[in-house]
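PROTEIN DESIGN WORKSHEET
SECTION A - STRUCTURE
LENGTH: 690
TOKENS:
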């Protein structure tokens, strides 16, 4: 293996990296679950034994519990093996909170399968130095401590992997301790230069190690990105003189891409683009009878023109789709495609593979239900009658679109398919192309959502959409950033074509601003569905869906006109996405920290990134203060733990509001006033201290 010799290693960033050297490991007894120096409860880890995940550039916390009997001092280090087989070592520091837990942060900048193991060792020099300082000052065992120190330093000077100058210094110090007086021994035991030498190259004995564990580092887009969803058939659609609407095409939809890119989005997500069945086609607002000209739900996939590998003829052909993908790429956008594994009654699968569906006693095929919702235009798949056949067909469909240039799939209702299928499919696809990303749209029980993430989904929808109060948001955002972040990455969509929450229905423009600001800053992945910037907030009575839902009809929107009239949220979205690009702290998930305010409607949190990881050599800290009551003006005091970004409590620092440009001098206790009718959110940059 080729060792990483220093901290300039291009594969990772770590202020705690030390020179690579083998561990002087003790022989641990076979059959025992503990090592000579215990190493327990290592993280990252995933329930069920699946590999933890990170994305390129993510600052990953590693931790382990380690201790030993008696008073001797131990050290703990992390051994990382990169995908190319090269290794590096990183010293962990004790948390000193009574937990015996040790930790270190490392940013991994190379995609692929890494492995990591923890190593603990008796830190012989640190043990001697601590004992010598105490005993010499007390006048106890001074000759003994001098002799022990001389022996240790002589042993260290004989290690061939130490630099020559270092070995010379160690030998000279060892010689000085022979029959040394108390002051010489005390000086050696408290010498900072010696301590640094042994921190970087510890003198070890009784080494113990954990078995290597796999860590999957995926491409940055698996964990960072701003998504924008739209229906390509609506983009460029035109109302004809007879009142009917002519569908948009990929070519007309491509004209919307510059506007999406100008708002700063990274991913344009398309709902299914396939032929739509006519049998039981849904009409406007999910009615059971379609009128002439009703386009039907794009989730009722399959017709005479083809199935999941076909394109709706109104949108164009394969060449038009590939041209759309190229046009998106030219704008800096990736295309995400909806993967909805279900079929309309007209899908070719229904006649070619009836065993892939559930047949009822009366001979009919069961349609999809999600009580109380019913989908008479959709047949769900049955994965148990012919698992080998259906698995291979789903793989063929995915790889077909990968060959068309699609590397991101938003998966519709994955919790209604076998978990084992997803484990197999994602692993098989990623073995062929590790850049492919799957987003799970599974609004279901927490255990199921977490299991889908554990088996391979790179991103997950979440309950963020329904977490609106200060208490709800604090609990939710802390959970996703701390408890499940080793494997589950939330994509904080503020709305979808299926979801228009009561908060947005009744919260007015302030609600749209608040939700966008929180989603864009609290997690590195978030998304909006087209129309959000136009404040489309009218629901179908008795539901959490937009009235005149775009799933069942075309939507004609005037994006430019709304922005020219000052009635669009696009300028705020543009600013939020610019802030995300300018501040690397916002491109991390695990650094969310909730702070406190005296008002139940004022949410306060920070995102801090140490200078070692920003790429600029300076810390990056963002503080967000949000009034989550969209109907009020709130005044309160917020209380911050400023030590999170390195400012001692009570000391002042400057903050700049990145929305308004205002600058204030703050401490850890600050008055705020947030008017939901003007600017309901502060997004504050902590300015560097001189």
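SECTION B - SEQUENCE
RESIDUE ASSIGNMENT:
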């Amino acid at each position: 293996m080729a060792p990483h010799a220093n901290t300039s290693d291009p594969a990772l960033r770590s202020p705690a990296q030390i020179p690579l050297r083998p561990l002087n490991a003790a022989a641990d007894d076979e059959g025992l679950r503990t090592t000579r120096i215990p190493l327990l409860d290592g993280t990252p880890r995933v329930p069920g034994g699946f590999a933890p995940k990170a994305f390129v550039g993510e600052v990953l916390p590693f931790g382990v519990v380690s201790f030993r009997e008696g008073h001797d001092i131990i050290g703990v280090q992390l051994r990382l093996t990169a995908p190319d087989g090269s290794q590096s070592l990183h010293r962990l520091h004790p948390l000193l909170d009574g937990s015996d837990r040790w930790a270190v942060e490392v940013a991994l900048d190379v995609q692929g399968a890494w492995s990591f193991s923890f190593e603990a060792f008796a830190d012989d020099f640190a043990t001697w130095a601590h004992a010598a300082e105490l005993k010499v000052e007390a006048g106890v065992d001074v000759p003994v401590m001098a002799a022990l120190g001389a022996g240790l330093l002589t042993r260290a000077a004989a290690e061939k992997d130490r630099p020559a100058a270092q070995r010379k210094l160690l030998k000279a110090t060892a010689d000085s301790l022979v029959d040394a007086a108390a002051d010489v021994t005390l000086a050696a035991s408290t010498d900072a230069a010696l301590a640094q030498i042994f921190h970087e190259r510890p003198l070890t004995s009784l080494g113990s190690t954990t078995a290597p564990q796999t860590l999957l580092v995926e491409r940055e887009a698996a964990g960072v990105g701003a998504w924008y969803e739209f229906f390509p058939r609506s983009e460029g659609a035109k109302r004809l003189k007879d009142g009917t609407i002519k569908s948009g095409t990929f070519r007309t939809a491509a004209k919307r891409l510059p506007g999406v890119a100008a708002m700063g989005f990274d991913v344009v997500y398309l709902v299914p683009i396939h032929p739509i069945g006519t049998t039981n086609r849904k009409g406007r607002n999910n009615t059971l009878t379609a009128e002439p000209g009703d386009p039907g739900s794009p989730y009722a996939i399959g017709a005479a023109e083809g199935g999941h590998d076909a394109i709706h003829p109104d949108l164009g052909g394969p060449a038009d789709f590939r041209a759309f993908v190229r046009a998106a790429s030219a704008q800096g956008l990736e295309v995400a495609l909806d993967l909805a594994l279900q079929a309309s009654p007209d899908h070719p699968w229904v006649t070619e593979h009836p065993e892939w569906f559930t047949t009822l006693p009366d001979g009919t095929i069961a349609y999809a239900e999600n009580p109380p919702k019913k989908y008479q235009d959709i047949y769900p798949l049955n994965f148990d009658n012919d698992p080998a056949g259906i698995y291979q067909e789903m793989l063929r469909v995915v790889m077909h679109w990968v060959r068309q240039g699609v590397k991101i799939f938003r998966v519709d209702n994955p919790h209604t398919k076998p978990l084992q299928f997803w484990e197999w499919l994602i692993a098989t696809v990623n073995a062929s192309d590790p850049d492919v990303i799957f987003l799970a749209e599974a609004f279901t029980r927490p255990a199921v959502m977490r299991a889908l993430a554990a088996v391979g989904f790179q991103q997950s929808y979440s309950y963020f959409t329904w977490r609106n109060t200060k208490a709800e948001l604090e609990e939710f955002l802390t959970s996703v950033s701390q408890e499940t972040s080793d494997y589950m990455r939330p994509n904080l969509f503020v709305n979808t074509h299926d979801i228009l929450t009561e908060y947005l229905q009744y919260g007015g423009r302030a609600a749209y601003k608040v939700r966008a600001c929180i989603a864009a800053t609290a997690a590195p992945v978030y998304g909006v569905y087209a129309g959000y910037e136009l404040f489309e907030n009218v629901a179908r009575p008795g539901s959490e869906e937009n009235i005149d839902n775009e799933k069942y009809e075309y939507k004609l929107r005037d994006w430019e006109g709304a922005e020219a009239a000052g009635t669009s949220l696009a300028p705020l979205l543009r600013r939020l996405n610019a802030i995300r690009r300018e501040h690397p702290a916002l491109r991390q998930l695990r650094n969310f920290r909730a702070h406190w305010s005296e008002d139940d409607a004022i949410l306060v949190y920070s995102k801090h990134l140490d200078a070692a990881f920003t790429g600029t050599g300076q810390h990056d800290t963002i503080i967000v203060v949000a009034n989550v009551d969209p109907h009020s003006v709130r005044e309160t005091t917020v209380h911050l733990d400023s030590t999170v970004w390195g400012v001692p409590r009570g000391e002042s620092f400057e903050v700049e509001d990145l929305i308004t440009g205002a600058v204030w001098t703050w401490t850890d206790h600050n008055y705020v006033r947030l008017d939901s009718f003007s600017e309901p959110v502060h997004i504050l940059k902590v300015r560097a201290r001189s």
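SECTION C - NOTES
Residues 1-7 have pLDDT under 50 and may be disordered.
The longest strand covers residues 112-123.
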